[in-house]
Amino acid sequence: MSHDHDHDHGSPGAAGGFPWGLLLGLIGAVAICWLGVTGRLNLYIHPRYNLFTIVMAALAVLAAVAAWAIRGRSTAGGRSWAAVLAAAAMVVALLIVPPSTLTASSAQQRSPNTGTDADATRLAGADPSTFKLRDWAVLVADPDSLAKYSGQQVKLSGFVTPTEDKRDGIFYLGRFVVTCCTVDARPVVVGIVKPEWAKSYKPDQWLEVTGRLVPIENAPGGAVLVVQPSGIKPIQAPDVPYEY
After folding, report:
1. Which residues have CB under 8 Å from 197's CB, separation 6+?
2. Would 2 be classed as within a structural domain?
3. How many domains does the structure of the chain reveal?
4. Domain of 80, in residue numbers
5. Final residue of a domain: which of 76, 96, 116?
6. What is the pLDDT of residues 90-137, one digit of tens each?
7. d(C-alpha 64, C-alpha 54), whole Å
8. Which residues pair with 223 in a beta bridge?
């Protein structure tokens, strides 16, 4: 005769275990709201998506809190240290550690000044004094710009990045343009004429350059204009280093 001992106290994997997935979702939604309030969400996505993202995150917070209340706190199930560590890592990554910005190395890997055809149409007839680095990056590669913009005074800021062929007489001043989020950011660059520039400046260093556009032959990237600087000033990287 067999003796069955039925002790139905629930198993560690029972459905009543601690809702770690719900907790992680709540932390993520709260973090997004906090980034929006502190103005740091722009480091991850285009500003035009801020409101939508914050509203959706706020709704996610309310939904998570409501789900937690309906579910109730359960004492069944084992503690998942992996989930605890994941929650802690999410808090650190989103709220404590500053997000790393894209670099000169990233610019070289992503082929600068690609996909700018639409920008060229947008700039036709516009006031040059309103142009950003992204705009000049389009125009310096356009042969039609030689007659129109040669001699144009410019004032640009961006990070230093070497040219594709590592020339010592010219470097790129670059920035990243974000259309949706930093994952799809594309680099834009303008050539700066500076003999032996590497003795004075380092890749990723931020500079403010003033000068005028001058014609150039056999320029890297097919440019027809580059900046002949009258002044180069090291500056701090801006809080939001991207253009939109």
Report:
1. 160, 168, 169, 170, 171
2. no
3. 2
4. 20-96
5. 96
6. 666 555 555 556 667 666 666 677 665 556 677 877 899 999 999 999
7. 15
8. none
